[in-house]
């Protein structure tokens, strides 16, 4: 009984050694398998998943296999990359967003690289990384969502702006996330800072508090516990601009119209980036993968499988997105460097207002 | 070996000098044997805990980080909240746990084993699920109050009290209580003056574990906490992952450890001070409750069952809920990743189930082997055994983020480039599970009468054989209990797993968390269906382990008679 596991371990050890020996026999200078490090909403390996089908086509074209390593939520993934900068866990990283970008660049987790095709991406995305510090791969918006039926039943119009949320008719109606622990929560705080400025946002939050805003720790709590559409009692929630189409796509029973709506002027834009991890033993293969990630072939799988929008403008969006998604033309935004410099201070000041 | 030599009534507060196996030169275990037994747990602890954690602290802690942390008002607010909610949760769990422990360890009744399994299943439910269920069950005004947090902590930890204390309680010779009753003591007085003092070591053990668990509470706080109700563990996670402040996180982890180390030292001392050698009856005798006892047993079990099953039922209900009516859609679609043509989930629930089962198997094997050896070593080593005992408890009190990140920067060069190895996950689970195996068995191991061994030695048995024939039979049941807990912990573990990078399938709790992080009702219902499967799997495992142990015991009895 006690010897069993030990023997098994020994056997496994041999198998592992044999496997790595197999890898080493490839003729190229570089390993022909590279690792894509991603956040935890990246689809699990599955030969039939569209993302992985696309990656398999990349392998067929280049001879480079891609393994996926899930590193946790975006913040965790970045912290790990920072700790291992220069001796990374993988070769390419997918998904650092603009609220974390400056920290990643400052910690030199990426090897600068101008991806083939990056020049064709909209300037809105590439202007944040003018020297190829990283490559924009997708974007999305964090916006106030509302429960259409609940507001109708109460005879209230949906709010039209951030300022509206402090009006008496929305008293006790809004649930938001704690920016200290939640990524959409932070984006919403940044939206209010972008809207009301460094001198005005605390007063705005005080008025939200007076209007009985509910603050919870995560998106899951806000959306699934407090939002009236999912069983809670509040018809306004901070979520994503893409939430309504997903309510339609992933409804338990087929739906014709989205049950939720988006307040367009409250949207804060999140842009995600990929990059070649500094210290990779396979820089040229890693660069080829980054090139591939912004091709139309890969980008067209992004909306349905990663729940964000493609940066490559050649992609034609599926009908559900055209009909139900909100992609504002001029979303709220802040300079990534300012976010990184002030994040801790802003969160502390927000906590003082929110709990004081 | 009669009950009268224990001297329990007369010298209840006199510590017995020998409680760790130093029962005279006649039957001392040979040194090489003790060393051989102590080495594996020591190496395991050193390689997978001390080294990575030390590396991270070495890298993170600096004078600046320390002064920053100390001068931040938030640090002390968090420490205060962490401490008082843990103390309150522990007291509440111990008080509420006594009645069901009494009922299950003293009486046999139909469904007793199932009841224990249900309790244990609650212990490993994903915090997201219990949190959601608590919110659903509590009136709105209490949703975000501290009562929600305390309630969730009781639901989770009731099993720790019932199982840890029950293991000793069921082996307490009932003739003591009967003798007290014969002398005219009422049941309450008998309990207070005879039973309770004997139960102090396991109560201290259970209290220490529950305190440690609630002091380091992470998931519950993230689900039910509000902005100014944060524990140190959550603050460590926030600093390390969201703010990228590894230094601040490392300092807070050390602070947390210091508080807990003090507690563990105190608890170990309390356990030893109150440890008495008593004659643990080999065969456990549980009676059927008679007369009014039936009511008390029913009430004790019923109340505990209600507290624990409410969340379980709530999650089954929610797995069936779909757009205002009920349907099996979520259950039917579990095995099918393709939601409609061309639309795939990207999460493999059944793969997660398989992955969780494999991981639990490895983690349990590892935890029982390491933990079993540790129990023997701790009992035999006496003073230095205490160190090993405390050391093995440390991972429980250490933030999972810091262990995970520590492994990341320690196991990153050949020959220890293990960062992405599949077995790091079961090792992480075993780190957390070993203390449970040790706690389950150590109380019994310490209570084994050294005279038993002396007697065996007098009869000519060589030390190892004397030890094997007197100690091992008593350890089988608590080790089985420990194995059940270890399997349950591995199945439900979320912390460490989520901070180790991984390729391939998720474990169940991670798959559930991912499902709940998506927009779309189907995902939500699927997450609750998966939670129900997780709870059922846990119950099944715990029941199998319990049944196995009971069968072995009755076989033993048959052999001996």
Labels describing this entry:
heterodimer; A: 356 residues; alpha/beta; D-Maltodextrin-Binding Protein, domain 2; 2 domains; ten-stranded mixed beta sheet; 14 helices; 18% strand; disordered N terminus; B: 561 residues; mainly alpha; MetI-like fold; two-stranded antiparallel sheet; 22 helices; 4 strands; 74% helix
Q: Could you list the spans of chain B in which at least 5 consecutive residues all have pLDDT below 50?
A: 1-26
CATH class of the largest domain in chain A: Alpha Beta
Number of structurally distinct domains of chain B: 1
Rg of chain B, alpha carbons: 24 Å
Task: Please identify, by name, the CATH architecture of chain B.
Answer: Orthogonal Bundle
Q: Which two chains touch over the largest interface?
A: A-B, 70 and 71 residues
Query: CATH superfamily assignment of the largest domain in chain A?
Result: Periplasmic binding protein-like II
Low-pLDDT stretches of chain A are 1-27
Tally of contiguous helical segments of chain A? 14
Quickly count the helices of chain B: 22
- Secondary-structure element series of chain A: HEHEHEHEHEHEHEHEHEHHHEHH
The structure class of chain B reads mainly alpha
Instruction: Please state the structural category of chain A.
Output: alpha/beta
Fraction of residues of chain B in helices?
A: over 70%
Helix share bin of chain A: 40-55%
Strand runs of chain B, count: 4
Q: Would you give an account of this structure?
A:
Chain A folds into two domains: 28-139 and 271-310, D-Maltodextrin-Binding Protein, domain 2 (3-Layer(aba) Sandwich), CATH 3.40.190; 141-269 and 318-355, 3-Layer(aba) Sandwich (D-Maltodextrin-Binding Protein, domain 2). Residues 1-27 of chain A have low confidence and may be disordered. In chain A, helix 7 crosses helix 14. Chain A is of the alpha/beta class. Chain A starts with a helix and ends with a helix. Chain A has helices spanning 3-24, 50-62, 74-83, 101-106, 123-126, 148-154, 183-210, 219-226, 243-249, 283-293, 296-299, 302-306, 319-324, 336-355, and strands at 33-38, 65-70, 92-97, 110-111, 135-147, 174-177, 214-216, 236-240, 260-277, 309-310. Chain B has 561 residues and is mainly alpha-helical. Chain B has one domain: Orthogonal Bundle (MetI-like fold), CATH 1.10.3720. Chain B has helices at 31-60, 63-71, 73-106, 112-124, 127-137, 146-169, 174-182, 187-215, 219-224, 232-242, 246-274, 292-320, 329-332, 349-381, 383-397, 400-410, 424-447, 450-458, 463-492, 495-499, 508-516, 521-560, and strands at residues 321-322, 325-326, 338-340, 343-344. In chain B, helix 4 crosses helix 22. Chains A and B meet through strand 2, helix 3, strand 7, helix 8 and helix 9 of A and helix 5, helix 9, helix 10, strand 4 and helix 14 of B.
């Amino acid at each position: 009984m006690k010897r069993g596991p030990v023997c098994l371990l020994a056997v496994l050890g041999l198998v592992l050694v044999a496997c790595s020996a197999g890898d080493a026999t490839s003729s190229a200078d570089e390993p022909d398998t590279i690792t894509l490090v991603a956040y935890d909403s990246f689809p699990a390996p599955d030969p039939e998943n569209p993302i992985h089908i696309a990656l398999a086509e990349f392998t067929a074209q280049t001879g480079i296999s891609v393994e996926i390593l899930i590193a946790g939520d975006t913040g965790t993934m970045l912290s790990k990359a920072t700790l291992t900068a220069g001796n990374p866990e993988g070769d390419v990283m997918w998904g650092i967003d603009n609220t974390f970008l400056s920290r990643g660049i400052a910690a030199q987790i990426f090897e600068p690289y101008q991806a083939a095709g990056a020049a064709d991406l909209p300037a809105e995305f590439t202007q944040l990384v003018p020297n190829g510090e990283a490559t924009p791969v997708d974007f999305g918006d964090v916006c106030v969502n509302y429960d259409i039926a609940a507001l109708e039943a109460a005879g209230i119009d949906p709010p039209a702006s951030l300022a509206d949320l402090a009006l008496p008719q929305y008293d006790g109606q809004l649930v938001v996330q704690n920016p200290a622990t939640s990524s959409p929560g932070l984006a919403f705080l940044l939206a209010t800072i972008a809207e009301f400025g460094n001198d005005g946002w605390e007063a705005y939050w005080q008025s939200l508090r007076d209007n009985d805003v509910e603050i919870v720790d995560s998106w899951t709590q806000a959306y699934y516990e407090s939002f009236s559409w999912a069983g809670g009692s509040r018809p306004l929630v901070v979520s994503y601009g893409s939430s309504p189409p997903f309510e339609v796509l992933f409804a338990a029973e087929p739906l014709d119209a989205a049950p939720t709506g988006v307040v367009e002027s409250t949207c804060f834009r999140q842009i995600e980036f990929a990059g070649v991890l500094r210290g990779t033993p396979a820089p040229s293969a890693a660069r080829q993968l980054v090139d591939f990630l912004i091709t139309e072939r890969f980008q067209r799988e992004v909306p349905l499988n990663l729940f964000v929008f493609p940066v490559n403008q050649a992609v034609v969006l599926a009908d559900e997105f055209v009909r139900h998604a909100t992609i504002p033309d001029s979303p709220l935004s802040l300079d990534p460097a300012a976010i990184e410099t002030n994040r801790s201070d802003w969160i502390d000041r927000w906590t003082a207002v929110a709990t004081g | 070996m009669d009950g009268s030599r224990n001297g329990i009534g007369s010298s209840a507060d006199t510590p017995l000098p020998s409680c760790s196996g130093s029962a005279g030169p006649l039957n001392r275990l040979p040194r090489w044997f003790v060393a051989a037994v102590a080495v594996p747990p020591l190496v395991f602890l050193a390689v997978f805990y001390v080294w990575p954690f030390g590396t991270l602290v070495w890298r993170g802690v600096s004078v600046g980080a320390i002064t920053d942390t100390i001068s931040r008002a938030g640090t002390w607010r968090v420490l205060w909240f962490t401490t008082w909610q843990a103390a309150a949760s522990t007291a509440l769990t111990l008080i509420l746990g006594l009645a069901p422990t009494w009922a299950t360890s003293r009486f046999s009744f139909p469904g007793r084993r199932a009841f224990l399994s249900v309790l244990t299943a609650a212990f490993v439910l994903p915090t997201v699920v219990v949190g959601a269920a608590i919110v659903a069950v509590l009136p709105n005004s209490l949703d975000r109050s501290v009562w929600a947090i305390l309630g969730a902590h009781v639901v989770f930890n009731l099993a720790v009290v019932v199982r840890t204390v029950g293991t000793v309680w069921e082996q307490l010779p009932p003739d003591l209580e009967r003798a007290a009753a014969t002398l005219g003591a009422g049941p309450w007085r008998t309990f207070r003056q005879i039973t309770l003092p004997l139960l102090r070591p396991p109560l201290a053990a259970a209290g220490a574990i529950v305190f440690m668990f609630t002091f380091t509470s992470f998931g519950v706080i993230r689900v039910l906490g509000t902005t100014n109700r944060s524990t140190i563990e959550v603050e460590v996670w926030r600093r390390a992952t969201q703010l990228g402040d590894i230094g601040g996180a490392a300092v807070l982890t050390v602070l947390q450890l210091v508080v807990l180390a003090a507690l563990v030292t105190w608890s170990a001392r309390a356990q030893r001070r109150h440890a008495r050698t008593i004659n643990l009856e080999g065969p456990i005798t549980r009676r059927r409750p008679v007369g009014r006892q039936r009511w008390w047993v029913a009430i004790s079990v019923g109340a505990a069952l209600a507290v624990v099953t409410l969340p379980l039922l709530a999650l089954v209900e929610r797995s069936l809920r779909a757009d205002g009516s009920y349907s099996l859609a979520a259950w039917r679609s579990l095995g099918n990743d393709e939601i409609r043509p061309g639309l795939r989930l990207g999460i493999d629930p059944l793969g997660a189930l398989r992955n969780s089962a494999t991981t639990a198997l490895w983690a349990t094997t590892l935890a029982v082997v390491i933990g079993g050896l540790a129990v023997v070593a701790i009992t035999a080593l006496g003073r230095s055994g205490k160190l090993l005992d405390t050391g093995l408890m440390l991972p429980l009190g250490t933030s999972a983020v810091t262990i995970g990140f520590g492994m990341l920067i320690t196991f990153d060069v050949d020959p220890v480039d293990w960062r992405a190895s599949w077995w790091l996950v079961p090792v992480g689970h075993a780190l957390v599970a070993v203390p449970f195996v040790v706690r389950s068995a150590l109380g019994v191991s310490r209570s084994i009468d050294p005279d038993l061994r002396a007697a065996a030695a007098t009869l000519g048995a060589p030390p190892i054989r004397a030890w094997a024939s007197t100690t091992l039979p008593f350890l089988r049941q608590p080790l089985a209990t420990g194995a059940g807990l270890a399997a349950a912990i591995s199945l439900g573990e979320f912390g460490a797993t989520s901070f180790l990078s991984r390729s391939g399938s998720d474990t169940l709790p991670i798959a559930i968390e991912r499902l709940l992080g998506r927009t779309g009702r189907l995902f939500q219902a699927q997450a609750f269906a998966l939670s129900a499967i997780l709870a059922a799997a846990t119950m099944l495992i715990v029941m199998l382990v319990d049944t196995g142990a009971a069968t072995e015991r009755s076989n033993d009895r048959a052999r001996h008679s």
